[in-house]
Amino acid sequence: MDSINTDHVYDSVQQHKCDYARDKYDTVGPERRANSDPITWNLLKGLIGICLAVQGDESEWETVVDSYRDVRGISTGNCKYEAGYRLLEAVASFVQAHPDGKVLIDDAPTGPGSAACPYRIQDVYVSATGRSPETVAPGTELWARGTWPSEVGRVLLNGTEAPVIRLPDSDQHSCCHNASVSFTVPKNMPKGTVNEVTVTGAGFRISARITFEVQ
Question: What does the pLDDT look like over 69-80, one tens digit per residue?
Answer without folding.
Answer: 999 999 888 888
